[in-house]
Design goal:
- With 94 residues, the protein is of the alpha+beta class.
- The protein has one domain.
- The chain is 20% helix and 30% strand.
- The chain has 2 helices and 5 strands.
- A 5-stranded antiparallel beta sheet has the order 1-2-3-4-5, with helices on one face.
- It is globular.
- The chain starts with 11 loop residues before the first strand and ends with a helix.
- The relative contact order is 0.22.
- Residues 1-5 have low confidence and may be disordered.
- The chain binds zinc ion.
- Residues 20, 22-23, 25, 27, 43, 45-46, 48 line the site of zinc ion.
């Protein structure tokens, strides 16, 4: 728990059903939680991303939405050891 790898800043992950306001579909979002930041979400239908309810600006390059979806799926697989529960272990380390 004291070894900091690049993924250690994530505390939880989950997939939620939601109505995407961007692609207007009943879609699902892959979400990752970080302390002090909140939930980062990616719509797995259109690739639009937002953080704690705030839309993130969409980068303007070819295939950015597809890349967002792939990045979220890669991260999901990489984060094997976390659940959909937010844990507060980091706060307990004095
Ligand atoms: Zn969408």
């Amino acid at each position: 728990m004291h070894i900091h790898i690049s993924t250690s800043r994530f505390n939880a992950k989950r997939i939620v059903r939601f109505n995407c306001p961007d692609c207007k579909k009943n879609s699902r979002a892959i979400e990752f939680f970080q302390h002090y930041r909140g939930w980062d979400s990616t719509c797995i239908n259109c690739g639009r991303q937002w953080c704690d309810g705030e839309w993130l600006p969409l980068d303007f390059y070819r295939g950015v939405r597809k890349e967002n979806i792939n990045a979220a799926k890669r991260l999901w697989r990489k984060l094997k050891d976390i659940s959909n529960e937010i844990t507060f272990e980091e706060f307990e380390v004095a």
